[in-house]
Amino acid sequence: MKHWKYLPLKWILAGIAHLPFWAIYALADFMFVLVYYIVRYRRKVVTKNLTESFPDKSADEIKRIERQFYRHFADYIMETIKVGHVTDEQMRQRITFEGIDIIDNYVAQGKSVAVYLSHCGNWEWVPSVTLWTRHQVNKEMVFAQVYRPLKNKWFDEYFLKLRSRFNSVSLPKTTVFRELIRYRRDNMPVVTGFMSDQKPSRGDDQYITSFLNHPTAIISGTETIARKLSMAVVYWDITKPRRGHYHITQRVITDDASTCPELYITAQYATLLEQTIINNPHIWLWTHKRWKKKVTLPNPPANEQQ
Questions:
Q1: CA distance 204 to 219
Q2: Of 51, 133, 175, 294, which residue has the fewest beta carbons closer than 10 angstroms?
Q3: In sequence order, what DSSP letters do the residues of 169-213 get, joined into one string?
Q4: 1-17 as b/e, with b when 16 or more CB fall inside 10 Å?
Q5: What mean pLDDT is reported for the chain?
Q6: Is the dihedral of CA 68, 72, 75, 81 positive or negative?
Q7: Which of 291, 127, 107 is nearest to 199 (CA)?
Q8: What is the pLDDT of residues 114-135, one digit of tens each?
Q9: Residues 108, 123, 159, CA angle at the centre, nearest 5°?
């Protein structure tokens, strides 16, 4: 009852979650019109980001991608609410994982895996990967995702509940390394998703590179954790074949992060993510003020793997 003032919102969200998918996407169409044409949510930010990231594209092409992005953004919001009441079979039909045996084989060897994710597609559907593994979740292994707690406690609890829908574990960013060490002491392999495309917070380790036509600071703390724990590292390349459907392909970066030159893994992630975005620009989260803080490219660049 401490969040009693949010009860009407809770009921509304629960009601939406119980709607069939065709109704979910009808609401998403309405939301697109509201957000894009009426509220004009961060339109200037999105236009600026797209124009600077794709200088070779015409104004008409940028506008087309912008509209596609806002349609996708509306889909993402409604799809995320739907997680509150969706069946396992519906999720298996709507988000597929190619090459999950790669992850399963690492786990069978007792090896933990660091998975590089991004704000592409619908990242709130990604925890349903537990429906694809051959291992018993939370008995033979753990699926986890790193998150930054929200300032609003009600929304923080709401999203944590959604993210645990498929029996994955949410690990706060500030304690993730300690938690992963604890799992290792218990001989429990962990597959951990790291959303590493956000701009680094103050004090975060970072790698600066050219990314989408910008000098960009990339979070390198994910690599630091993976190296210290000798984790395998995989990138999840996501596409959106059609509305309401996503596909993730496993792309192995290394079998053992501790054997890689410093910053090699982060550099590989930046390259892979950039290509994902170039291939499907409308499914990345362009509303972020990703390049608000200017950075300078280093000279010489980071070492490449021998």
A1: 7
A2: 294
A3: EEEEGGGHHHHHHHHHHTT--EEEEEE--SPPPTT--EEEEEETT
A4: eeeeebeeeeeebeebb
A5: 94
A6: negative
A7: 291
A8: 999 999 999 999 999 999 999 9
A9: 100
Which tokens belong to 175? 């304690």
Lookup: tokens for 270: 């930046």
Task: Grade residue 299 by pLDDT with cuts at 50, 70 and 90.
Answer: low
Instruction: List all residues 6 or more positions away from 128 whose beta carbon is below 8 Å from its beta carbon.
Output: 88, 91, 92, 95, 165, 166
- DSSP symbols for 128-151: GGGGT-SS-BTTTBEEEEEE---S
Both structure tokens of 279: 């291939």
Q: Which H/E stretch holds residue 279?
A: helix 264-279
Both tokens assigned to 216: 């960009």
Q: Is the pTM of this model over 0.90?
A: yes
Pairing state between β 142-147 and 245-254: unpaired
Look up tokens 């944590």; give the residue: 160
Question: Which pair of tokens denotes residue 273?
Answer: 């993510």
3-state helix, strand, coil in the chain (%, to 5): 50, 20, 30
Q: How far is CA 151 from the centre of its chain?
A: 20
